[in-house]
C-alpha cells in the first residue's frame, strides 16, 4: 500500500498543477480540480465495495433469509445485468443533463439502494441491489469520460488513481464485511453499512455537479450514438474483451468466497482470500499502467496480466483450498486487464462524448454477455454439485481473454502517455 500511496500522491501533485483553461479564474480552477480529484477517489472506493461486501456475505444471507438456488444465482447476476441495461442509457443521460449531474444521480441511486439492503427481506435485498447497481452502472460508463474531461493530459495517472481506489474499496469490503456483520449481528445490516460510503461520495460530488452544465459538441450535439461503433474493429474488440474480462472478474468476485467455503474454509477466510485478490491488483495496476504509457509496451502489459489470469484459473482448479493464496496472487495480478482497457477507451475518439459512446458500447453490450458468468456458473454448480465444471469454463474464458488482448493491441503498441 506504500507504493500505491506514493503513486496516488504523485498523481494528485501532477493533477493539481494549473490547468490550461485561461477563461476560468485560477481560484475556481483549483477548487474544481480538487473536487474532481476527490470524485475520482471516492467514486472509485464505491464501485466494487457494494459487490465484494455482498459476495463475502452470500453464505450468511442465504442462511438468514432462506432463499433457494435460483435467488442465490440471481443475486450476483443483478450487478452485471444492471451494468448492461442502465449503462446503455448513460450516453443519452449525460447528453441531457450533463456528465457531472448524471454521476450525481447515480450516487443517489447507489446510496439509496445500499440502504435498502439492510432490511431482512428477500424482495428488498433484490430491489436494493437493482437500485444500487444501476447507480454503479452509470458511474462505470461515465468515469472514463469524466477523467478525459477533467484530466485530458493526465489520463494515465488518473486512470491509475481511479483503479487503485476501486481495488482498495473492494479489498476492505471483502475483508471486513463478515466481521462487521458479526458485530452488527446481521448480514443484511453488514451490507447496508456501505451506504455510508456512498453518502460521503455524494456529499463531496454535489458542489461539482451544481456548477456543471451540459457541454455541446461542435455543431450543437452533446450525444454520440455508440451503436455505429459495432461496425468498427476497435468497437468490436473493445466490446468482446470487456465482456470476457467482466464475465471472469464478476464470476470470481461473486463465487470465490463460496468456493473456498465449499472446500472447507470458513466464511471469514473465504472473504480474506477475495481480499488478497483485490489487494494484489493494486501493485499490478501501478506496474501495468506504467508499462502502458511507454512506447511498444502496451501489448506486453496486456499479455502479462492476461497470462497471470490464465495461470490463476489453472491453480484454482487444481490446488486445494489450503493453498488458496497461490491462485489469489495470480488472479489479483490478472485483474489488470480492466484498467488497461479503460485506458485504451479513455484515449479513444476526439471528444468526451465520443469516449462515452465507446465506453457505453463496450460496457452495456459487454456486461449483457458477462451476466451469463455469475448466473450460469451458480446454476451449473447447483446442477452438478461440483465447482470443477464451472472452473473449467472460466479457464476457457481466460484463454479467450488472452487472445483478445493480443488482437486489440495490434494497432495500439505505440500508445502515448
Please give the structural blueprint.
Elements (H helix, E strand, L loop, with lengths): L1 H14 L10 H21 L2 H17 L3 H6 L3 H11 L1 H8 L1 H18 L5 H29 L4 H30 L2 H6 L2 H16 L22 H30 L4 H26 L5 H21 L6 H10 L2 H10 L5 H19 L1 H13 L3 H21 L9
Question: What tags apply to this protein structure?
Answer:
417 residues; mainly alpha; Growth Hormone, Chain: A; MFS_trans_sf; MFS_Cyanate_Porter; transmembrane; transmembrane helix
What does this molecule look like?
By secondary structure, the protein is mainly alpha-helical. The chain contains 19 helices and no strands. The protein is globular. The chain starts with a helix and ends in a 9-residue tail after the last helix.
Task: Summarize it.
Pfam families: MFS_1 (PF07690). Helices cover 78% and strands 0% of the residues.
Instruction: Count up the domains.
Output: 1
**What profile does the largest beta sheet have?**
none
Which CATH C-level class is it? Mainly Alpha
State the fourth-level CATH superfamily: MFS general substrate transporter like domains
Low-confidence stretches: 1-28, 216-220, 413-417
CATH architecture: Up-down Bundle
Taken in chain order, the helices and strands follow as HHHHHHHHHHHHHHHHHHH
Give the C-alpha Rg.
20 Å
Shape: globular
Residue share in helix: over 70%
Determine the number of helices (DSSP H or I, runs of at least 4 residues): 19
CATH topology (fold) name: Growth Hormone, Chain: A
Distance between the termini: 24 Å
Average predicted local confidence, pLDDT: 82
Strand content: under 5%
**Alpha-beta content class:** mainly alpha
Q: How many DSSP E strands?
A: 0
InterPro entries: MFS, MFS_Cyanate_Porter, MFS_trans_sf
Keywords: Membrane, Transmembrane, Transmembrane helix
Protein name: MFS transporter
Transmembrane segments: 34-58, 70-93, 102-119, 125-147, 159-180, 192-214, 235-256, 268-289, 301-319, 325-345, 357-379, 391-410
Amino acid at each position: 500500500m506504500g507504493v500505491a500511496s506514493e503513486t496516488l500522491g504523485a498523481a494528485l501533485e501532477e493533477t493539481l498543477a494549473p490547468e490550461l483553461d485561461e477563461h476560468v479564474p485560477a481560484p475556481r480552477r483549483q477548487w474544481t480540480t480538487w473536487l474532481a480529484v476527490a470524485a475520482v477517489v471516492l467514486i472509485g472506493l464505491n464501485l466494487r465495495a457494494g459487490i465484494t461486501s455482498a459476495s463475502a456475505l452470500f453464505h450468511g444471507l442465504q442462511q438468514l433469509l432462506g432463499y433457494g438456488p435460483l435467488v442465490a444465482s440471481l443475486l450476483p447476476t443483478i450487478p452485471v445485468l444492471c451494468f448492461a441495461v442502465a449503462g446503455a442509457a448513460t450516453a443519452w443521460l449525460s447528453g441531457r443533463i450533463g456528465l457531472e449531474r448524471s454521476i450525481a444521480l447515480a450516487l443517489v441511486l447507489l446510496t439509496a439502494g445500499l440502504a435498502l439492503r439492510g432490511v431482512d427481506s428477500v424482495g428488498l435485498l433484490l430491489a436494493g441491489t437493482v437500485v444500487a447497481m444501476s447507480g454503479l452502472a452509470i458511474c462505470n460508463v461515465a468515469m472514463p469520460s469524466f477523467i478525459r474531461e477533467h484530466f485530458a493530459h493526465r489520463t494515465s495517472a488518473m486512470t491509475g488513481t481511479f483503479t487503485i481506489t476501486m481495488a482498495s474499496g473492494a479489498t476492505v469490503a471483502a475483508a471486513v464485511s463478515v466481521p462487521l456483520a458479526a458485530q452488527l449481528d446481521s448480514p443484511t445490516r453488514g451490507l447496508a453499512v456501505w451506504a455510508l460510503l456512498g453518502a460521503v461520495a455524494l456529499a463531496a460530488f454535489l458542489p461539482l455537479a451544481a456548477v456543471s452544465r451540459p457541454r455541446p459538441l461542435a455543431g450543437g450535439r452533446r450525444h454520440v450514438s455508440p451503436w455505429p461503433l459495432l461496425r468498427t474493429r476497435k468497437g468490436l474488440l473493445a466490446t468482446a474483451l470487456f465482456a470476457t474480462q467482466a464475465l471472469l472478474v464478476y464470476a470470481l468476485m461473486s463465487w470465490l468466497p463460496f468456493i473456498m467455503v465449499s472446500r472447507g474454509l470458513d466464511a471469514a477466510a473465504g472473504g480474506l482470500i477475495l481480499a488478497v485478490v483485490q489487494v494484489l491488483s493494486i501493485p499490478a495496476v501501478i506496474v501495468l499502467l506504467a508499462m502502458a504509457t511507454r512506447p511498444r509496451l502496451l501489448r506486453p502489459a496486456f499479455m502479462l496480466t492476461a497470462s497471470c489470469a490464465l495461470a490463476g484459473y489453472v491453480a484454482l482448479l487444481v490446488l486445494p483450498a489450503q493453498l488458496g493464496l497461490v491462485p489469489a496472487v495470480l488472479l489479483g495480478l490478472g485483474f489488470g486487464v480492466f484498467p488497461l482497457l479503460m485506458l485504451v477507451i479513455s484515449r479513444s475518439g476526439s471528444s468526451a462524448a465520443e469516449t462515452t459512446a465507446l465506453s457505453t458500447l463496450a460496457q452495456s453490450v459487454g456486461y449483457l454477455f458477462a451476466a451469463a458468468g455469475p448466473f450460469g456458473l451458480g446454476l451449473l454448480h447447483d446442477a452438478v454439485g461440483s465447482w470443477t465444471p464451472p472452473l473449467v469454463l472460466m479457464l476457457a474464458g481466460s484463454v479467450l481473454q488472452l487472445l483478445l488482448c493480443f488482437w486489440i493491441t495490434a494497432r495500439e503498441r505505440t500508445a502515448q502517455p
